[in-house]
Design brief:
Length: about 180
């Protein structure tokens, strides 16, 4: 399986309790869909993950607390700390209009309405309703709200056009 076939959906933060559960830092806006009882996840480094089935799950303060089949003790769970959690790209859910998977936006070129280069998307941060692009440009890092009013995404071309209000790019610039 190649990296492009996998989607990162979380990282195991640490063991939790004595029954082999772990706390997950989710990397998805769809935690309720991705972390369900019976769901199979790929656990570990992207070049050699191991399939594990979720035995039980609950959410605490927005973070999944997961028990995996075969992970029964705190010691077992501690060995998973720091592991990445992946799903195969083919399991993606269709998205509503003007909504994008973060990994599809990373690497896109960003230009302004006049075609001038702003930079390249290095990350997407924030919750789905308040996401913003982290763009690496010639003058440093720029944060751009991912709002339909100012951002047009052309995924096949890997190009994002922004029409920001005056001063937005300069005020959100970080050296």
């Amino acid at each position: 399986m190649e990296m492009s076939d996998l989607i990162l959906i979380g990282r195991i933060a640490r063991a939790h309790g004595i029954k082999g559960q772990v706390i997950v830092d989710p990397e998805t806006d769809f935690a309720g869909l991705r972390f369900r009882r019976g769901q199979s996840l790929l656990v570990g480094a992207e070049d050699a993950p191991t399939a594990r089935q979720i035995r039980d799950v609950r959410f605490h303060q927005g973070r999944p607390v997961i028990g995996f089949e075969g992970v029964e003790t705190m010691n077992d769970a501690e060995t998973l700390a720091g592991a990445e959690l992946w799903v195969e790209a083919g399991t993606r859910e269709p998205l509503p209009d003007h909504t994008f998977y973060r990994h599809d936006l990373v690497g896109c070129d960003v230009v302004d309405r006049d075609g001038r280069q702003v930079g390249t998307v290095s990350a997407v941060e924030g919750a789905i309703e308040r996401s913003y692009l982290i763009v690496q440009g010639a003058r440093g890092e720029v944060m751009i709200p991912l709002r339909v009013e100012i951002v047009t995404v052309d995924l096949p071309a890997k190009r994002i056009t922004v029409d920001p209000p005056e001063g937005l790019l300069e005020v959100n610039e970080r050296p």
